Amino acid sequence: MISVTPQAQSKILEFMSAQKATTFLKIEIRGRNAKEYLVNFMLEEKQSPTEKKVDLDKFSVLYSKEDESKLTGSTIEWIESVSGSGFQLKNPNKPESNLDSPLAARVQEILDAEINPSIAAHGGNIELLDIIDQKAYVKMSGGCQGCSSAKATLKHGVEARIKELIPEILELVDTTDHAGGSNPYYS
Predict the structure, then answer these.
(1) In a domain, 184, yes or no
(2) Could you give the CA distance from residue 69 to residue 101 in angstroms, rounded to a whole number?
(3) Three-class DSSP category at 100
(4) Which of 81-85, 107-111, 118-122, 152-156 has the lowest mean pLDDT?
(5) Number of domains forming the structure of the chain
(6) Which of the listed residues 90, 125, 147 is the one where a domain comes to its end?
(7) Which residues are within 8 A (CB) of 147 and not within 5 positions of it... i.e. 6 or more apart?
């Protein structure tokens, strides 16, 4: 189901030792982008009835029963690089997406050619996640995440321009967690 590399197991045990009472590593799917499921890793003391468990030598991995098909075949790794270190989930499962459609290609073209170069001047970026029922789901990052002007920028600037050029798009839906992240504009 889910495997853990030896280096990741060592780090997990190190963190568990510091917490003393924890015996579970929990994987929680917190969202998705166009290419992958986004996950959180946390230490837990108890298993809930809605969770499944994978037993390893010295600890167990928990995940939601409803996320089983999204996590099957995944591997938890510990990554160290010049930009930092942390756990990473190598997941062969990809979210379903409508990003291969001609409509998505047109929206992406506007984001790439007009929108993102403009907001990059403020350290921001807008990513197209999906198109469902003529609504474009986007995620703002960088300087846009947590910015007090993000909503106005998205609705009155980005959405207006995309709807002007592509009338089939009825709305842009912001999926950004503006309070989360490691460095939101305003925290």
Answers:
(1) no
(2) 25
(3) coil
(4) 81-85
(5) 2
(6) 90
(7) 122, 124, 140, 153, 178, 185, 186
